[in-house]
Request: fold
Amino acid sequence: MNLVAKHLTYKPDDQYHLNDVSFNFEKGKLYTILGRTLSGKTTLLKAIAGLLSPDSGNINFEDKNFSKVPVWERNVAMVYQQFINYPHLSVYENISFPLKQRKLNEENIKKNVDAALKTVGLLGFENRKIQELSGGQQQRVALARSLAKKAKILLLDEPLVNLDYKLREQLREEFKTIFNEGLANETILIYSTTDPQEVMELNGEVIVLDEGKVLQTGPAKDIFENPINLKVAEISNDPPMNIINGLKIDGKITFENINIKLPKHLSQLENKNYNFGIRSSEIKLSDGGEEFEIELAEISGSETLLHLKRGSTKVIALIEEVMNFKIHEKVKVEFNSDKFYVFAEDGKLISSPFRIKNG
Amino acid sequence: MEKLYKFLKYTFIILWTVFIVAPFLWAISTSFKDFQSVNSKVTYIPWLDFEPTLEGWRVLVKSPARGGVDIVEPYFNSLFVTCTASLISIVLGTLAAYALSRFTFKAGFVRNNDITFFFISQRIMPPIVLSIPFFIFLSTIGLLDSLIGLVVVYIVLLMPIAVWIMVDFFNRVPKELDETALIDGCNPYQAFYKVVLPNSVPGLIVAGMFCIIFGWIDFFFAFILTFTEVQLLPVKVVALNSSITPWWSLSASALISVAPLIIVAFVVERYLSKGNLSGALK
Reply:
């Protein structure tokens, strides 16, 4: 009774949009697809909805071959990153549209629409025109429409990406409750995003997609703690995880004339060159630290992102307060070596602070 | 500088308005004159300059047997041909445009853009080039000098306009709108008429306006393809001009033949000022 995809491949031009994608989605669960722009997220969702048919591979749902079922009979719902509603209909008519298509009776429709409106917090907006609503409200209508349908598969394609920062935070918070309350147990919820933070907060099963290929699957915590390679580490962190090419010699790690004492979890490591990964939040300003030159300082919200350089090594440090820096100024920073990841030269994860693996 | 600019701007607008409106005023004034008032001296203002008469207008509805010219029948012929051809062009053109906008066609080297170009290419040639094949075509199927024949020809002339405008319009309607309709349980036909079409009204109005204008003002094909049985308004108006030019009835008929276009212009102007069409006209 699951949604099962096997070896989906889609290559409309000379680039793979989907490259041998397989998965098994269970009912009542939340799945997030994490990947950068053009990684194939939308293509995958459209393939599930039936809006495009892959070149090869197949999708089964409830033990039926889905590829034979046309879109309009699939009982899926989809929310796009653009705010797509029916501009010629009012809010109420928009949300009731799919229910009318399904020929439910008036009373039933009203009940469902009201419940959906309540969930997204738009009660009282029934008669508004879509054009009179703000972007956030429009997206709420789209969400309400997909909730009211009680579809068996709910697809959300970067639903927050076109909203402003503040609203995104707020809706992201609300999403968790909406998904918990508004959904029946037999719904499969698939949520695609470029934002690692969204993935962590939604805390579902994660599929990391890149160039149409599945790089890693697993619970959000797993992806965060043990990204299987450099690419996943990059995609699943914002700002991307810093990668430092360094040498491990007895008891220390050296790069750019910096020596860092070997942390405990890396004691088993062979002596050679590695890619060391460290999150931006694990690099701190410290008087006793090493000297780096500031290339750029970005202030975002209540944080400051410092782009630092020393020799050919570039790192980004996340400072948890708003500070003013001058470009080309020198600052001293310290690396929290307990949080070092180690990747082999070919990118594979060798060791992480959360799990020790040899070889 | 600012003032000078303003002054020049308004001067230009006023001159332009006079340039546009003057012929109409002249025609209105002339349509109420008789032979005497037109030919004696320069006159403008009724009652002061000349004694107004309705003779110029009356002639238009009198049958030729009673000394009139009867433009009523050509008028309704023109209305019928223009409206029927426009309507069919819009219906067929909209369907064709939707297909061209949403589906990818491949036939040898022919792609969607080539098909769109094929439609508009019908309008690239000078009309005189088309007139010979049209003439032969209509005479072969026996529709020369008939309303139906004219409707057929006008569809050929107007549909490219409808296709051209509507392809452009549909290309601006996000594809996700159709997709959402499909996901929400519409089959492709329902998605078209329940969702896409109601949101395309501005485009349909513009396309319809252009079809009506181009159909209504056509003189060339109406002249070539009709003889005695059927006459369209532009041909009839021109035919009024005999050895003595009847300026009064000529003016009156000119005025009532532009009347529908003025109505169309007002309707469209209301939509334009609402900003609804700005996208469709860009």
